[in-house]
């Protein structure tokens, strides 16, 4: 039996597996899906887990079942591309592969800031989002919460906490002169206005120097913070550093036009670990997964794969609580209820893949 191993049950890995199943697996192929959790989790909704406004079960989706698909749950310790095996902490024997998909996501980038990793919470995994949610829920009235980073994740975390806990003091630290630097100025102004109206303190041109257990020190002064959540950038999973593949200046693996590692074309990379001209997102990982599935389907059936078409993203959506939002759709900025409903619709579709 030939063996295909998919590392990571995220948006990219799931699209690959679903499409291969839809197209029909070759009879001599065994697929092993490796993930730390026994379910796919909707990472775009982790901000709501942290804020305590969404139940854990509402962001979990069961993996597909098939007689030729096996699952292995645990922490990946080594990707041995020389011997073509995967070492899992909880499994005694390494898992061999003939074809490999690497979709192990990203982790927080603390930029070498002292205390950031030790004293801040995260929304990069469902387990970390749960811990952040517990910390927020357990805060006394009038406690102080600080969110470091005013990109999409930081905006959604800050606004959701504000809506969930109006008794808390919420502070958002933004490194730039405006929030959401990747979005249209109309959206930036709308979000800034929303925060002003809802008493979220936005500090621009922030420069966090170090973090303490109950304080964040910015531009020479420290202020109290009972819970601090870090949303100030990500980097590829640390395991990518150990691989002998060529990488870009962000540490992501460089690929050929078929999403294969040029030096080992039986290895594919999807999502946050794959070098791309686009910023990382669930939408990007999903589209990459679709194209990898097309390539793999041909390769596994002994055919020459067609050149994948160019990735065309449809825009980005963000929430400001449960009834307000923003987004770039059809190359136009939208704000208010419409983009929030659109985001809810995307979530509904994701659950019914």
Automatic annotation (TrEMBL):
One of its GO terms (molecular function) is NAD(P)H dehydrogenase (quinone) activity. The keyword Flavoprotein applies. It comes from the Bacteria. The keyword Flavoprotein applies. Gene3D superfamilies: 3.50.50.100. Belongs to the NADH dehydrogenase family. This is SidA/IucD/PvdA family monooxygenase. It comes from Salinibacillus xinjiangensis. The lineage of its organism: Bacteria, Bacillati, Bacillota, Bacilli, Bacillales.
């Amino acid at each position: 039996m030939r063996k295909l191993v998919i590392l990571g049950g995220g948006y990219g890995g799931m699209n690959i597996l679903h499409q291969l199943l839809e197209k029909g697996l070759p009879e001599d192929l065994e697929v092993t899906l490796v993930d730390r959790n026994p379910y796919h989790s909707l990472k775009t909704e982790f901000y709501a887990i942290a804020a305590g406004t969404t139940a854990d079960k509402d962001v979990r989706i069961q993996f597909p079942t098939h007689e030729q698909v096996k699952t292995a749950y645990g922490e990946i310790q080594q990707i041995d591309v020389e011997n073509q095996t995967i070492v899992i902490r909880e499994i005694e024997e390494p898992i061999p592969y003939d074809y490999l998909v690497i979709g192990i996501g990203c982790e927080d980038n603390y930029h070498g800031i002292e205390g950031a990793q030790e004293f801040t919470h995260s929304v990069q995994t469902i387990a970390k989002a749960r811990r952040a949610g517990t910390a927020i829920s357990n805060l006394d009235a009038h406690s102080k919460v600080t969110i470091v980073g005013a990109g999409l994740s930081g905006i959604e975390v800050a606004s959701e906490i504000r809506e969930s806990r109006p008794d808390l003091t919420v502070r958002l630290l933004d490194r730039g002169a405006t929030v959401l630097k990747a979005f249209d100025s109309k959206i930036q102004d709308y979000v800034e206005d929303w925060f002003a109206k809802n008493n979220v303190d936005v500090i621009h041109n922030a420069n966090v120097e170090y973090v303490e257990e109950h304080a964040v020190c910015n531009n020479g002064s420290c202020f109290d913070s009972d819970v601090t959540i870090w949303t100030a950038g990500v980097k590829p999973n640390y395991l990518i550093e150990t691989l002998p593949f060529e990488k870009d200046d962000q540490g992501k693996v460089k690929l050929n036009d078929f999403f294969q590692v040029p030096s080992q074309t039986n290895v594919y990379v999807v999502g946050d670990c794959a070098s791309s001209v686009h910023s990382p997102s669930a939408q990007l990982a999903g589209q990459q997964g679709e194209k990898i599935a097309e390539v793999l389907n041909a390769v596994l059936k002994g055919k020459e794969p067609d050149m994948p078409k160019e990735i065309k993203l449809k825009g980005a959506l963000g929430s400001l609580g449960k009834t307000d939002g923003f987004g770039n759709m059809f190359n136009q900025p939208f704000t208010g209820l419409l983009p929030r409903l659109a985001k809810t619709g995307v979530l509904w579709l994701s659950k019914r893949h």
